[in-house]
Design brief:
The chain has one domain. 50% of the residues lie in helices and 15% in strands. The chain has 12 helices and 8 strands. Helix 3 packs across helix 8.
Length: 252
Amino acid sequence: MPPAETRTIGDVAIAVHDRGSAIALLEGWVGAGERRAVSFANAHSVNLAARDRAFRAALSDMLVLNDGIGVDLGSKLLYGAHFPANLNGTDFVPALLAAARPRTIAVLGAAPGIAEQAVARLAAAFPQHRFNVIGDGFFTDDAAIVDRLAAVQADYVLLGMGQPLQELFVARHARRWPGVTLCIGAYIDFAAGRVPRAPLWIRKLHGEWLFRLSIEPRRMAGRYLIGNARFLFAMLIQRAKKKGPVANHRAP
């Protein structure tokens, strides 16, 4: 499969894929035994990358997929086109698990005990795969966790520590374990049933961010209210400066 076109939103090069082509790419990497990493960028990610050099550098070595209405609006403003699909990790990961050949999956992240709950539900939903809990996301001994990841020899690693911690962990260590690592934020909490999803009709209207704001107002207010305004302002500046011509870059 040829490398995907990317669109630079802020300082983040986001690959242009639909769900099927992204899944095929990842399955091709696993089949070829490649070590790769994937992240999902939304408006908050772009804001973080603007002020965090290490996070920007980590993302530059990953396949970055588009997550949510914010970066889709940025794509429309800067490139005159929407992304082919919303590839947010919470929907993309189960689609990948449903489509993938039988694989070994390692799960690392969330609060203590949550990964075990997530794996119990995932194993019931996707019995063709073999799931392994590596640990929670509050470890202090990187070396021990890396050793466990290396020992499992997973095809896919689901890493849920939140941005930018998960991407920085990958940047430090990912060459030391095999497979494709997906930096999936709060997906482990969703998979465990600990955090509710917005109803499907709200998700279809791209309103899941409003739903999350309504159930976690203190934690999400800064990200979604102040952060979204900051993101939109940055997009308008980038457009005005004509920093967003159609890219010739290629995704990693």
